[in-house]
Structures are given as C-alpha cells and as structure tokens.
Design a protein that fits this description.
Layout lengths: L7 H23 L7 H14 L3 E2 L11 E5 L2 E3 L14 E10 L2 E10 L5 H18 L8 H12 L5 E2 L5 E3 L6 E5 L16 E4 L2 E3 L5 E3 L6 E3 L5 E3 L2 E4 L6 E2 L4
Antiparallel strand pairs: 1-4, 2-4, 3-12, 4-5, 6-10, 7-8, 7-9, 9-14, 10-13, 11-12, 14-15
Helix pairs in contact: 1-2, 3-4
Bound molecules: magnesium ion.
The site of magnesium ion has 5 residues, from loops.
C-alpha cells in the first residue's frame, strides 16, 4: 500500500478526529486513581469517545473486546480491561485508544502513573515520552523514515532500556493501520521519504529491562518477558512544510 498523502480537506478531518481523542484523554487521565479497575477505565473511555462524537476504533478491531487498551506494569500494549484488575498506588497503566470521526482515525497512547511510583519507573515513563519528542524533531518533509526511528533509538540507548521490536508505529488515515511501519529501533535502510500531508502514529514502547516480549494466553496482552515495567507514548502527527503538527495534543 502506498503511503497516503492527505488533501487539505482530509487533514482538517484528521485534526478534528485527533482533537476529540485529545479531549478524551484529558478527561480519562483524571480518573486514574488507586482503586479503579481497568474495566472502569474502559467504560469511562468508551463513553467519552462517544460523547465527543467519535466511534471507538479499537473495539472489535481484529476481535479486540474493548475500546481502551489497558496495559498494567509489565504489560506493554493490548491489555484487555478486566473487572478484577484493580490499580494500586505505585502501578503504571498504559492506555492506548483511538476513535473514528467522519471516516478518519486517530490513535494515541499514554502511560499513567498511579499515585506515587518508584524513581526508576518514573524515569522510564518520562524518558519514553521524551523519546517521542526527540523522534518527531526529524519528522520533516525531505527526511526519511529512519531519521525518526534512529532518533528515538539513540535517545533511549544511554539509558539501557529495552526497545520493543515486535510492535511499531504506523501510518494512519481512513484506516487505523496504514503504511509505513515505523520502528523505534535503529534502522540501516532509509525507508520512505517524508512528504507534507502524511499522517503518522509514532509510538515508542520501552521496557525497563530487556526488549523481549511475549503474548499472554488471552492472545492479546503483550508483556515484557522479564516481568519488568514497560511504558508507551504515542501521538498521531502530521508532516508539514515545516515543523510537524502533533494532532492528538490539545
Ligand atoms: Mg498506534
């Protein structure tokens, strides 16, 4: 599939879809406190998406049973919300969610700290977020895709964290997952050239320990094999003639 270049009209719709998702996160993040279950987080998130005029795009995607992915501590991504999964002080939960508005998808992820977390986990969450911002410094027309991947990887490297390789960022538009795939680890091939009008979901997934992951028996939840915490940060961005526009932030 060729990488889609959005028209001004499509870019406007992407902006609207993404701003709605940003508003959902603004509200949803406030609800994350010790004692809440991941089931409740999904209920609230699903309601916020619909109240904002969107349709949850994760629900039933390849059979995923919820609107919000809730991945706790060593879970990297695709955690399934559960009534018996209660968050406690010191946990982290990675939320991954998206919506469709007028046919256009948005996608973003945040790792939320539940109350006070350990210094090493706090650093992991912060540095994962920072690596996204480092990566998008290179998300400019005329650069190549590997400039983004390599910037993320080089930012993470001195911290000794494991960069997840099995899951990557992606193009986004009329489909949740479009070309290109956007790895967060070092690339030798340049990959496609970046042009204005491309919309990309860039999403470093970073493990405190080793990079290896495995899938749980629910066939969805991806966890760090060594059981150490993992963090995720994602926004949908737009390549422009100048600086990239982060669409899923208010
Ligand atoms: Mg994504």
């Amino acid at each position: 599939m060729a990488i889609s270049i959005k028209s001004p009209r499509e870019i406007d719709l992407m902006r609207q879809s993404c701003k709605k998702l940003a508003k959902v996160y603004e509200e949803l993040e406030k609800c994350i406190k010790p004692g809440i279950s991941t089931w409740e987080i999904n209920e609230i998130g699903d309601r916020l998406i619909r109240e904002n005029g969107g349709v949850p795009n994760f629900l039933n995607y390849n059979g995923f049973p919820a609107s919000i992915c809730t991945s706790v501590n060593e879970a990297v991504v695709h955690g399934i919300p559960r009534k018996d999964c209660i968050l406690h002080e010191g946990d982290i939960v990675s939320l991954d969610a998206g919506l469709i508005y007028k046919g256009y998808h948005s996608d973003a992820a945040r790792t939320i700290m539940v109350g006070k977390v350990s210094k090493e986990v706090e650093d992991l969450v912060r540095i994962t977020k920072e690596s996204f911002f480092e990566g998008i410094k290179y998300a400019k027309a005329g650069n190549h895709l590997y400039d983004i991947s390599n910037a993320i990887a080089d930012y993470i490297k001195p911290h000794g964290y494991g960069i997840v390789r099995e899951l990557v960022g992606h193009g986004i538009g009329t489909h949740l997952h479009e070309d290109p795939q956007i790895p967060n680890f070092r690339q030798t091939k340049r990959g496609p050239k970046l042009y204005p009008g491309m919309t990309l979901a860039i999403e470093p997934m970073i493990n405190l320990g080793r990079a290896d992951v495995e899938w749980l028996d629910d066939d969805w939840t991806v966890v760090a094999e060594d059981g150490l915490p993992s963090a995720h940060y994602e926004n949908t961005i737009l390549i422009t003639d100048g600086e990239p526009e982060i669409l899923t932030l208010l």
